[in-house]
Amino acid sequence: MKQILIQDTNGNLRKELRDFLVSLTSQLRDRSLADTVQVVTVADIGIYQKGIVAKVLPEGFVYGNLEVKHIPEIIEKTIQKGEKVAALALDRKNKQMRIVLRNCGRINPECFEDYVACDGYQGLAKALEMGPEKVIEEMKKSGLRGRGGAGFPTWMKWNITRGVSGAVKYIICNGDEGDPGAYMDRSVLEGDPHSVIEGLMIGGLAIGASNGVFYIRAEYPLAIERIQKAINECYARGLLGKNILGSNFNFDVEIRLGAGAFVCGEETALIASVEGLRGYPRPRPPFPSVKGLWEKPTAINNVETLANVPYILFHGGESFGKIGVEGSTGTKVFALTGKVRNSGLVEVPMGITLREVVFDIGGGVFNNRAIKAIQTGGPSGGVIPEQFFDTGIGYESLQKLGSIMGSGGMIVLDENDCMVDISKFYLGFCVDESCGKCAPCRIGGTQMLAILKRISDGKGEDDDLKKLNEIASAMQKASLCGLGQTAPNPVLSTLKYFDAEYKAHVVDKKCPSGKCASLVTYSITKDKCTSCGMCARVCPAEAITGSRADKYTIDPAKCISCGQCFDVCKFAAVLRQ
Amino acid sequence: MGIMKQDLDRIKEESGKNVSKNWIRVGYSTCGVAAGADVVYQVLSEDAKARGLAVEVKKCGCVGMCSAEPLVEVNVEGAPHVFYGKVTREVAHKIMDEHVCQKKLVENHIFEL
Ligand SMILES: Cc1cc2nc3c(=O)[nH]c(=O)nc-3n(C[C@H](O)[C@H](O)[C@H](O)COP(=O)(O)O)c2cc1C
Ligand code: SF4
Ligand code: SF4
């Protein structure tokens, strides 16, 4: 049995696809192949904007931009002889690379044997053989940098903590993951819990800690459940506790739950929270590596960072260091969301371009609208407009563009997204989440938000943009913790790239993308209206009335400027001004 | 005495021998469950049992295609190995009927990763 998988990858070739399918099935029938070849239309073939695409199984040849005239050749060559039709073939490279997500979706996360079958705990076994110094040496060769946001070299953090003397030390896994739109860490904790535990154990061995703590937000019940089960399983087999794998290494792990405050992802606030105190950051130094949990030397690592560690130990730091680019090695997991066709998790080698991630893997913008920018790094990051999409992903390259790698949120924005609105959203998030301990963040954030609200309400004043810049710079310089220091970033980067859009709001009192409700009005042009009534049906405010004879009109007094009529009208009869 | 390195090697080796040739995996992380993976898992396991099929239905984490959840990966002898997305109760029945039993692929739900 052979299969031909078929999809219209442009999304607008209904008639062409139908003709193609009709012709293909009849030609197969004519050649008495109907019983041995199954033609299947599929939901997503993983290729975009290549017209009608077919994949022939079991050969796996993929053909693009197909037309009816190509059918005989495909049947004669590929179906009957198993040969490739080179002229039609698309070369389909898988641009993803799975290290962190190596087991996610492949193993049963609640099954210890499944993990062990995929080389689980072999990295730990090697680490125990090598001893702490060599483990740190291996991590240095790998070039792994922290995936929690700041990008600090992991080997260096471990080496510093190892160098601080103390009988009791801790290693903490930061599973707070508070960035809106980011859920990579949750997925790893849920899909491959043992890999994070193994990473934590190797880290503990390296720094000389015999206590590990998982800090996971309480909103992640399934992650907590799976980590707890995995920990129990390790204890039951003696893989946690005393004399692990017959060595003299002892290690205990416990879980602490966070209440979901963004600031508790910051390491000093996290430590306070684990100690049962209010989640307030404190000034550094002393750094946690010197004085951390219970005043003992402590290393804090992100979930994704730790999930890389067993792989590095097992496969060697050198081979890991060859993946990616200079200064940013390995892979990065991104939670690709927003106006992208395939939202989900992607793991790519560092150095791949933003364009490849958004278009080749993500499939571009849905509805084929124009892409405007992507947002990376969440509330601490910024936007990167489309003209920079050929930049390769790396810690420094993204920083140069005014954004950051961050923990891995990547939100795609299209022409309907308003940049003032976006920065209002992120700043609003930081204002809500600010712990209030220091004035620059508490007051500065609130004032910036008030200005942004004013701008989007059409009440912006001439010097508002200047004021935004001034307050932002004060917050960056004087805030106590990373939350306040980075909170202005989304505003600054949108100001940098979309200055004209801000000016349109402030000077012309217009919102070019039609998002800021107070700045747009909707009306219906009678000439274009076909009286289909779709708009009246979707309007949540019942502001649209009409009939076949009179056509439809919007009552401005009732209209809430939600724009749903604009989106639904197929005849471009709804005007947005 | 706790587990030793040799035990890890042994578990690894044994599991290599024991992989069943016919299996179905259901993405069972938060994204999958929120989209209805629990129902899908239940339907598939019950169907397999009711018909006495030699196919193992397993839970797994998220492969990353969250927009296509619930996601089901099917590997049975005699038919290609594929992922089905946006699987509902009805589609789950079809997977058993058409893919597992008749070795035919189910229309309109295949997602290539
Ligand atoms: C406001 C704020 C929130 C943070 N949230 C997280 C988080 O959710 N997860 C995380 O791993 N790191 C977070 N960090 C970074 C941590 O402070 C710390 O740098 C990180 O956990 C170190 O791990 P790494 O070196 O493996 O990246 C946050 C930092 C700040 C300032
Ligand atoms: S910067 Fe903000 S979140 Fe951080 S300590 Fe100051 S008030 Fe709290
Ligand atoms: S949806 Fe467009 S065409 Fe239909 S009634 Fe409304 S304005 Fe007229």
Low-confidence stretches of chain A: none
Percent of residues in helices of chain B comes to 40-55%
Report the principal-axis shape of chain A. flat
Query: Which structural class should the secondary elements of chain A be placed in?
Result: alpha/beta
General description of the model:
The complex is a heterodimer of chains A (577) and B (113). By secondary structure, chain A is of the alpha/beta class. Chain A has 5 domains: 2-81, Glutaredoxin, CATH 3.40.30; 159-307, Rossmann fold, CATH 3.40.50; 325-414, Roll (Ubiquitin-like (UB roll)), CATH 3.10.20; 419-506, de novo design (two linked rop proteins); 521-576, Alpha-Beta Plaits, CATH 3.30.70.20. Chain A is built from 22 helices and 19 strands. In chain A, strands 12-11-15-13-14 form a 5-stranded mixed beta sheet. In chain A, α4 crosses α11. The longest helix of chain A is centred in the C-terminal third of the chain and has 18 residues, at 439-456. Chain B has 113 residues and is α+β, with helices and mostly antiparallel strands. Chain B has a single domain, classed as Glutaredoxin. Chain B is built from 4 helices and 4 strands; from the N terminus they run αβααβββα. Chain B has helices spanning 5-18, 30-35, 37-50, 89-101, and strands at 23-27, 56-60, 72-75, 82-84. In chain B, strands 2-1-3-4 form a 4-stranded mixed beta sheet. In chain B, α3 packs across α4 (89-101). The longest helix of chain B has 14 residues, at 5-18. The N and C termini of chain B lie far apart (43 Å). The mean pLDDT of chain B is 92. Chains A and B meet through β2, α3, α7 and β12 of A and α1, α2 and β2 of B. The structure holds flavin mononucleotide and iron/sulfur cluster (SF4) (2 copies). Flavin mononucleotide binds at residues 146-150, 152, 157, 174, 176-178, 262-263, 265-267, 300-302, 305, 407, 481-483 of chain A.
